Amino acid sequence: MPVDLSIKKVPDDVAERLRARARQNHRSLQGELLSILEEAVEVRNTMTIEKLLERGRERGLSTPDESTAWIRQWRDER
Asked: How far apart are CA 59 and CA 1, in angstroms?
């Protein structure tokens, strides 16, 4: 069930920039705000460099060429 949200005391300059952004994207202000919220809570892949290095070491990769091939394969599988 949809929920009504309210943001109070939005500064005039912020509200005007939101309106301009909505116009630019051919949306209503409501539609633009919903789009911003959806993007903000979108689940993203959070692969960090540290995790990537750990995965490479676990797989026994030792040269840049091996690592590059593995990264490309991983990226293409997403």
From this structure: 46
The count of residues in the chain is 78
Q: Where are the domains of the chain?
A: 7-44, 45-78
Give 27-58 pLDDT, tens digit per residue. 999 999 999 999 888 877 777 888 888 887 88
pTM: 0.55
Q: What is the rounded distance in angstroms from the CA atom of residue 31 to the CA atom of residue 58? A: 45
Question: Looking at residue 26, what DSSP letter applies?
Answer: T
Helices 29-40 and 12-24 cross at an angle (nearest 10°) of 90
